């Protein structure tokens, strides 16, 4: 990445005072936006800057009027333009003609989401889910399918979710029964609840599907577990393939360009080779073979594909949020209402503290999420690289790799849940901050909000994901934790909190030494102090959670389930505390890239202060209950949040300029008609 | 209202233990739903039960597909059905052929919002705003317009908001200049920012508009202030009237059946009689006359019409929320996912504590809002009745009436802001709690959410309304507070907190004596304790706010503005604390209608406990900072919230059955397909 340069206003601002943010130069220096953008783009600046011009095109903006079929057809054309750009295909493995750069897929979706989320999600379904399943679970014999996904000659679905089983994937009911006579699998939907549901590309465009089903082989009565199969669902002319019944979910709360539908299979026969056989296969004589002995481990190894999807959803949610913030912050800098100090002129919205609070607090979190995304994406890429290099066999990982893989899953779950929840609340705030203008579709905010709504559900419900993360932490990354019943959790809870804490790692290599590097005076404006306060909550919540759950060890199933149910809010609090700490760590890491003493550094530090202090304030009740913050310090943190939004107010446009949102998104009617100071 | 009857399970449950909710009979007793419904419907049960059958009609459900013109045309037909029912017109004054029952308008909108918010809002525009403006501001000479609004022969707009002035009504730029030569007013839009914007009925159906404009008469250089005029905007064939230019806002984030548009006037001439002259008139020779001397008071007397609108918006938001809660709670009682204690069967969503927390905490607030609505609606009706009886002249109120009127404004502002914010967050939670099914338009939740989105903005932005309430409280109901600049606020802040507190009243007559009636042991489960805890916050926030603002008394304009801006979050906190206390008071009042010792009473008390304790928990940080709750008591309140959602879980369906949502709304596909236990 390019080195941040020193700007004009550098070295002018004062040192931070004990309980006040440093005084920033006013007005904001727009050159700083470029420096901040480099930090936010991180290692992906080059790739992003290549894609941005393509997206800065009014024809990419989401249409809102027209029939569903028109909206879907228009959306497909845009996905074709994405494919033609060639920027997303490097995410595929070299085997399939890609470059094994998983980052390319994620950052592409992130940028597309800043312009049009229907294009983003349909692209995600095609390249990330349908293509991604083949890429991650297939072998040489599936290259043609992967390439068909990459060049759009084969439009496909990711058919995992069923009507009766959304979150509980391990219990999907669709069956795949091997018939040695014909060397085929018979794909079948045995019950109404086994219908594949909410599947993207299934209502209209999909011709193929990666179908997750319980595998039955002649050598066993029991299911071999959930496996993935390539099934043709429609003929090229769009009629259902024999034995397949597709249907249309019709109108949804958003993402109108994406054709979600249902799929049922009535004993559909597919060749034996259509089993994606990287981690398990069925031989010609019907024998089941897999390099992974434990069925649970096999299931979760295959489900590893979801990590990629969750990174994509999180990045897209975060991208759309930044676009919304840019719109609302820019509007707040032009729109005037009510006189303030000067009787002759109404004040700009940004001149009101409550308005600054509403926009700048989430903006700080968007900065934190961006640095977190960069950090975990890099770590994920390292993991993939190690696999391609042969140093990491996903079927037989070392103990350390196993733990790291599970930690990656936790990080992705936290990222996805945090980013998608943040997206919904922030985009809603942005809409409200733009008043009536915000409700007009031409100003994009309501479409963005409606589109990201479902991000909190797909690729894993946010509550379930936070629970998954909590379980992972609670069981010190026991790799099967995700599948555990409350009873299992109780049995396997880590016996030693110290053990879990010792294993708790940062994201990048250097991060662990932060406490050594930063020696704090205890001021709330010191990164070290902030980190220690967040870590304290993480550790205490964990300790209390372990204590609660351990009591269930000797109980029977029903009693243990009750205890775990009663600890559910603590499990979620655990995940949130961990997430807050990780986000802060990423911010501290990122700010190290900025020249000390530079204005950009000073501004970034205040954004970090705002994120950290707000995270503390949001749990001020807990800190006081646990004697970890005095009443005075709690009040000081609240006052500091107010001081910070005041200090950053004049910098608000610079902060969103650093997001580099395509200009075509920002050129909204409200900026000139409803926003211009016409008084 | 009908008297709650004693149900079978009555008198069976235990007394509340010290720190635990009383044990309720399990499973819930559905007969209790009827008893609770009577309390929730309150004095309006009869009127509501008359309207409910009309709305229980699938053709009333909101369509989501079709062109804007189709959606708008279909919506207009439904408004005609509402008009034909005759249930909403009694809200007009006897002069215009109504019954002066403002409650009829509010409760009608509330019920319609449970089925279709486009119908609700278009009805609100037609009867409540356009009709309501004529009814409240007009005189004998405007009866034909009021009746045209009532029978739909005159479709009209409420043209207050301008592009440049949404919240700042006092500074609208449209002018109405009297021309004595022709005995006409000339209505004109002098600037682009004076364009009337976001006006319902303006894009398509409106033929008339109640236009708010600065009045200029020959006897003065200066504006006489904002007055309201009846202006024809379109000919019967739909073409713009001479000098009028209407335009269409097009697609919005919701309420697609409502045709919002813009209106500009180019020296449009209207007869002198079209000034709504109840509070001010212009004589034939151009002399301005008004029974209200002070221009500010005149402005706010005319703006009193907004109180009615805010009650309607709040009631509609609350109604839509209850429909959403009924859907999500019922889904949670049928939908199963993941095994819990019993390995053979997946648990219902409601069996998970986090799910109970997500749904039952907002449900308790919905109960509180319903009792609050009934209380303030009754008070508002009393005020109107006194006016019709000649005991209360709105142009020359007594000092006591003046204060009561201002307090009514505060209550309506709090109600509208609380209900609309609650609607958005709760409907979003309901959508998420129904997972993918919640995102399908056929299940209604996303349409409801998108429709109520703008409720937080129209009829007064929620932040501005909370601020207005805060200002009213801060200045001990100085009646001009709403128009005050920060400088004025600083000058007029009450000098004596005790003075404000002494004036602080309850809603109904009896409410003040609650503290005497209920003698508490100090248990968190006692109404008295809860009320004292909420009152403490209200008083302390007020005291601290007064202290802060008083310092600005001797400052100049710019400095004072800064101090007020810095106190903005305290002003909002003041309004919220007041709102919490008032909601709790209403609940305590309402529960007095239930027979002591009955199951219905026990259930209702726990709903009240849940609302109150959650309101305390949400501010647990503040209470500890101010030494008002110990760490132990704060933790106990949190534990109590969990215990309460556990206790009320089996009663959740009964609680939403008491909302009496039309069955056609509840008959959603997810209840049978995605929801049925098919495992």
UniProtKB/TrEMBL annotation, chains A, B:
It holds the Pfam family Acyl-CoA_dh_M. Residues 528-667 form the Acyl-CoA oxidase C-terminal domain. Its EC number is 1.3.3.6. It comes from Corynebacterium liangguodongii. Keywords: FAD, Fatty acid metabolism, Flavoprotein, Lipid metabolism, Oxidoreductase, Peroxisome. Its main location: other. This is acyl-CoA oxidase. It is found in: Peroxisome. Belongs to the acyl-CoA oxidase family. Residues 1-29 are annotated as: Disordered. Residues 304-474 form the Acyl-CoA oxidase C-alpha1 domain.
């Amino acid at each position: 990445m390019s080195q941040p340069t020193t700007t004009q206003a550098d070295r002018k601002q004062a040192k931070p005072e004990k309980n006040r943010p440093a005084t920033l130069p006013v007005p904001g220096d727009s050159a700083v936006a470029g420096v901040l953008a480099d930090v936010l783009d991180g290692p992906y600046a080059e790739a992003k800057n290549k894609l941005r011009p393509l997206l800065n095109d009014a024809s990419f903006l989401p249409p809102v009027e027209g029939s569903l079929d028109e909206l879907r057809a228009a959306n497909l054309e845009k996905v074709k333009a994405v494919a033609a750009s060639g920027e997303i295909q490097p995410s595929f493995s070299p085997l399939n003609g890609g470059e094994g750069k998983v980052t390319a897929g994620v950052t592409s979706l992130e940028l597309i989401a800043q312009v049009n989320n229907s294009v983003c999600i349909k692209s995600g379904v095609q390249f990330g889910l349908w293509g991604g399943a083949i890429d991650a679970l297939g072998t040489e014999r599936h290259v043609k399918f992967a390439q068909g996904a990459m060049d759009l000659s084969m439009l496909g679905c990711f058919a995992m979710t069923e009507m009766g089983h959304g979150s509980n994937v391990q219990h999907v009911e669709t069956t795949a029964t091997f018939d040695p006579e014909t060397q085929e699998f018979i794909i079948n939907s045995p019950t109404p609840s086994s219908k594949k549901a909410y599947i993207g590309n299934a209502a209209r465009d999909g011709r193929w599907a990666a179908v997750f089903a319980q595998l039955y082989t002649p050598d066993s009565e029991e299911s071999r577990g959930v496996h993935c199969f390539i099934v043709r669902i429609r003929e090229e002319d769009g009629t259902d393939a024999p034995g397949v019944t597709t249907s249309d979910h019709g109108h949804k709360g958003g993402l109108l360009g994406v054709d979600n539908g249902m799929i049922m299979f009535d004993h559909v026969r597919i060749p034996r080779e259509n089993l994606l056989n990287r981690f398990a296969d069925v031989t010609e004589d019907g024998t089941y073979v897999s390099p992974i002995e434990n069925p649970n481990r096999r299931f979760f190894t295959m489900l590893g594909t979801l990590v990629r999807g969750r990174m994509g959803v999180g990045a897209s949610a975060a991208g759309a949020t930044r676009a919304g913030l840019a719109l609302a912050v820019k509007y707040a800098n032009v729109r005037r209402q009510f006189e303030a100090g000067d009787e002759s002129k109404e004040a700009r919205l940004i001149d009101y503290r409550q308005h600054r609070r509403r926009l700048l607090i989430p903006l700080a979190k968007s900065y934190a999420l961006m640095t977190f995304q960069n950090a975990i994406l890099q770590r994920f890429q390292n993991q993939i690289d190690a696999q391609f290099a042969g140093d990491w066999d996903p079927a037989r990982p070392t103990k350390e790799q196993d733990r790291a893989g599970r930690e990656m899953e936790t990080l992705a779950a936290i990222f996805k849940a945090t980013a998608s929840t943040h997206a919904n609340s922030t985009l809603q705030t942005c809409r409200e901050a733009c008043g009536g203008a915000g409700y007009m579709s031409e100003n994009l905010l309501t479409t963005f909000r409606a589109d990201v709504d479902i991000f909190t559900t797909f690729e894993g419900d946010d509550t379930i994901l936070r629970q998954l993360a909590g379980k992972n932490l609670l069981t010190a990354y026991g790799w099967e934790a995700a599948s555990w019943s409350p009873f299992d959790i109780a049995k396997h809870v880590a016996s030693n909190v110290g053990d879990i804490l010792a294993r708790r790692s940062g994201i990048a290599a250097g991060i662990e030494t932060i406490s050594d590097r930063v020696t704090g005076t205890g001021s709330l404006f010191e990164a070290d102090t902030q980190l220690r306060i967040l870590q304290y909550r993480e550790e205490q919540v964990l300790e209390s959670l372990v204590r609660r759950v351990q009591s269930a060890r000797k109980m029977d199933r029903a009693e243990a389930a009750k205890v775990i149910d009663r600890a559910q809010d603590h499990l979620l609090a655990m995940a949130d505390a961990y997430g807050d700490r990780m986000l802060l760590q990423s911010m501290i890491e990122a700010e190290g890239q900025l020249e000390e003493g530079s204005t950009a550094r000073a501004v970034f530090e205040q954004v970090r202060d705002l994120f950290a202090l707000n995270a503390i304030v949001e749990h001020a009740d807990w800190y006081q209950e646990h004697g970890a913050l005095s009443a005075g310090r709690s009040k000081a943190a609240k006052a500091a949040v107010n001081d910070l939004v005041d200090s950053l107010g004049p910098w608000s446009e610079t902060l969103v300029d650093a997001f580099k949102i395509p200009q075509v998104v920002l050129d909204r009617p409200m900026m000139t008609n409803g926003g211009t100071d016409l008084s």
